[in-house]
Amino acid sequence: HRFAATVQQGYTCFPWLTVRQNVEFGLRLERKSDEEIKRVASEYLHKVELDDRAHSYPKQLSGGMQQRVAIARTLAMKRPIVLMDEPFGALDAQTRADMQQMLLQLWEVERNTIVFVTHDITEALLLADRILVFSPRPARIVFDMKVPFAFERPPELVHTLEFANCAEELRQLLRKPGTEFHALKA
Fold first, then answer.
1. Neighbour count for residue 75 (Cβ, 10 Å)
2. Which of 44, 61, 70, 177 is deepest in the core (most CB within 10 A)?
3. Nearest-angstrom CA–CA distance, 27 and 41
């Protein structure tokens, strides 16, 4: 779609393509020039700190690195809307925290709208500007929270009283059967 792109929960690298070729994939579908494809792929490999792995294959990468490839491939397409469907769900805690900080840094430069689906309240509060809580089917918004934190979201934020209070407010809402939430970064 020309307005939106998606990063899935699972690792979505094409195993027969190198890291660089994975990032170039969407750009080739758009029939960009070879020069532009190489330039944009290099730019995004640098942004996700995988310059040195450009010629590696996905099986040679950790899960976090594979997810960085998927993020680079998606962002390289420069869509105004990015849907991220639990992209860090399968990662260990430290890699997940590193990826969250990387995503915040990328968003500061990209400034696109990210719809981030997560079941993790801490992750939603750390990454989002706005959190929506939905009712069971038919889904409707039952709560719309503007996240009260400044753009700078260091990992230590999770240890503040204000963060704990916001998290508890969301936990109470989610105790109602069938509710779920989605995080927005716009």
1. 26
2. 44
3. 9
Distance CA 128, CA 120 (A): 12
Tell me how long the chain is. Answer: 186
Both tokens of 125, joined, read 């509060």
C-alpha radius of gyration, the chain, whole number: 17
Of the candidates 110, 126, 125, the residue with the CA atom closest to the CA atom of residue 74: 110
For residue 115, the SS3 value is: strand
CA angle 81, 118, 18 (to 5 degrees): 65
Angle at 147 between CA 145 and CA 149, to 5 degrees: 165
Alpha-carbon gap, residue 69 to 99, rounded angstroms: 12
Give CA–CA dist 74/82, Å, rounded.
Answer: 8
Is the separation of the CB atoms in 145 and 130 below 8 Å?
yes
d(CA 62, CA 96): 12
C-beta of residue 125 within 8 angstroms of C-beta of residue 144: no
For the chain, percent of residues with pLDDT exceeding 90 = 44
Write the pLDDT tens digit of every residue in 126-168. 999 999 888 777 888 888 999 999 888 888 999 999 999 999 9
171 residue type, one letter: R
To the nearest 10 degrees (0 to 180), the angle between helices 19-29 and 63-76 is: 20
